[in-house]
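#structure-requests
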Amino acid sequence: MVDIAEYISTEDAAEMLGYHVEHVRRMIREGDLTSAKVGRSWLVLRRSVEDYLIFNRPLNKYDPKRCPSNDNVGTVRENTSR
């Protein structure tokens, strides 16, 4: 069971992060934020938002290390279709 006290709404997470609500939902889908579905609503673990802010604070928006879940950013794939 989810402890509701540890979770916040996507709207509150967007406000904390300074992002649009749709971007927060994209971050949930991509695994950047921990969330739980309660009824028809998604709730975001407050700690995951805080961790995201701490991790990304020193990075600018073009830094490939900015998003912790995108480990493959900047890697080049070999073309195997010859």
